[in-house]
User: Fold these one by one.
Assistant:
Number 1:
Amino acid sequence: MKLQNLVILGTGGTIAGRALNASDNIGYTAAQVGIDQLLAAIPALAECGPFITEQVAQIDSKDMSFAVWAQLAVRVNYFLTRDDVQGIVITHGTDTLEETAYFLQAVCRPAKPVVLTCAMRPVTALAPDGPQNVLDAVAVARHQGAQGVVAVCAGTIHGAWDVQKVHPYKLDAFSSGDAGPIGYVEEGRLRLMRNWPFAQMRHASIAIENIANWPRVEIIMNYAGASAAIVQALVDQGARGLVVAATGNGTLHHELQAGLFKAQAAGLKVVRSTRCIDGRVLPLPNDVIPDSEGLSPVKARVALMLDLLAEDAQGLAARRV
Ligand code: SIN
């Protein structure tokens, strides 16, 4: 039986990076090798096609922008609607992969697999990790029943809600924290531990191709000696939302807290996440600042931007009636 197409979208990252020296795993330039060249260097892929490839971007993911996110979501949505497409693999830098994963899950809500993969070493390394990660990602995208946005790195499948880069150098750089991974890829076969991400999201769905103005949402942190000065500066600059990476179970220095209450009173949306790597802020009945419902600060920021975009769209629709 002929397999359906798998789409592979390139966006850059270390997986497409080049160094001058094969023994150099850190002094490389990301996003140098095109998606077709990258895949041509993985002969084992020949047995896993057919593929449709597209270069959506060619960037170091530290430079991820709203424009690239929108373009990526548009292409993902397009390929998801095609009956001849089984799933999508996206090659991406590791640095902001978790934000892109959450964004695509929230915006595209895929009933098919959308698998982000990456590498910690460039193409030119003595032992690059990208080729195996791509093969594993393809195995996930070909798995019957796979769905939603996941990340595959170092033989581990992480869900879009939970995945977080936790190490700047190790090949196994990602964790799903308390939730644990969705599963593992072992010699092309999947060993699943829990369910795939499901389409239900708390955000209203938004038409990504129509966004003219992305709301400004910034992340600030609580720490010893924190003050309200940064909050005031951001309010003055027109920020519409703030995510605070609070200490522990959502605690805030009293001066920063006073500034955030003032910002709320002025109409800004404020959300509390925790700077702890695992766990979540456990809410109390009288909380003035809502918690991020388990999202890390960077994902809580994406969620808040999407909430504000949905509000803007509703406002626009109401004005048109
Ligand atoms: C990037 O995020 O694009 C560079 C770093 C990496 O992919 O590991």
Number 2:
Amino acid sequence: MYLQKLVLTGFKSFVESTTFVFDAPFVAIVGPNGSGKTNVADAMRWVMGEQSHKLMRMKHHTDAIFSGSTSKARLGLAQVDLHINNSDHRLQLDYDEVVITRRLARGDNETEYLINKQPVRLQDIILLLAQANFGQKSYGVIGQGMITDILNANPPDRKNFFDEATGVKEFQIKRDQAINKLIRTED
Ligand code: ATP
Ligand code: MG
């Protein structure tokens, strides 16, 4: 399983649809200050279901949508597509390529999530990635200062990081879902 392609359409500063093709194992994104390098990392987090505005450097959820510039009007829709090569079927789906999409229209409170163009719930994406020991919360995207944070983390936070890396997270999510079902049944 590896990241093949990332397509940003109307996401933050990416007003034109922009495709990054990752066909080499090592990729660096270089550019002048403020040119949008970190926005690419933000897009990766966003499409994987990140809910923390702070982590994605936003005040409001619509800050994910291009807000206009001196020469271009603001847009009404942001979309990020993450193309994953799944020929080893580490993502537990019967597809060799899996495209995860997150889309937000201005005025909508909720974002839409899709897997291979089929609407899904956020929970489905989180579980799919957790089953592959991958997720938006931990080592999937290592941001500036994160290594220091992990080294300085308190034991519960550090445990959370390793839970995701070792695959325990999948079972914690399933356990929580089962507990919720039991509570609803009891009610
Ligand atoms: P640095 O080199 O300083 O780390 P960078 O290349 O990482 O910079 P980013 O932080 O990714 O740059 O991009 C910042 C730019 O993105 C700013 O110019 C900001 O105005 C623009 N930007 C962020 N959100 C939006 C938005 N919703 N609409 C339009 N532009 C946006
Ligand atoms: Mg940056």
